[in-house]
Amino acid sequence: MKKKSIEEADFYDTGYSYTLSLINGKYKPIILYCLMEYEPVRFNEMRRYLKDVADKTLSQHLKELEADQLITRTVYAQIPPRVEYTLTKRGHSLVKVLDKLCDWGNANRRTRS
């Protein structure tokens, strides 16, 4: 198979671009990592884990991840209401990719003196 020239190439038509579009943003990879490590996670637990995130921003990122079918939001009918987030099967498959990023970071980060 002949490789396309750069003039013919369209980065936005690649799997790499699609994957990045799912995890773009400051908090999405961190949310996915949190769920990978601690699921199920409640909204307030997630907010405390992220420390400096605004409620509106966290809510928007969670809605986007849910729309992309990477996480599931479960609402429990009780007072006060309880909402938990977990990874979907699709989300777990993406976490395998994020795990590789973590492995690379652990192998290549410099220790601070």
Please explain how this structure is put together.
With 113 residues, the chain is α+β, with helices and mostly antiparallel strands. The chain has a single domain, classed as Winged helix-like DNA-binding domain superfamily/Winged helix DNA-binding domain (Arc Repressor Mutant, subunit A, Orthogonal Bundle). Helix content is 54%, strand content 12%. It is built from five helices and three strands. It has helices spanning 15-23, 28-38, 43-50, 55-67, 89-108, and strands spanning 41-42, 71-76, 82-87. It has a three-stranded antiparallel β-sheet. Strand 2 (71-76) and strand 3 (82-87) form a beta hairpin. Helix 2 crosses helix 5. It starts with 14 loop residues before the first helix and ends in a 5-residue tail after the last helix. The model has no long low-confidence stretch (mean pLDDT 91).
Poorly predicted segments: none
CATH topology: Arc Repressor Mutant, subunit A
CATH class: Mainly Alpha
The backbone outline, from C-alpha atoms, is: globular
CATH architecture assignment: Orthogonal Bundle
**Beta strand %:** 5-15%
What does this entry show, briefly?
With 113 residues, the chain is of the alpha+beta class. The chain has helices at residues 15-23, 28-38, 43-50, 55-67, 89-108; strands at residues 41-42, 71-76, 82-87.
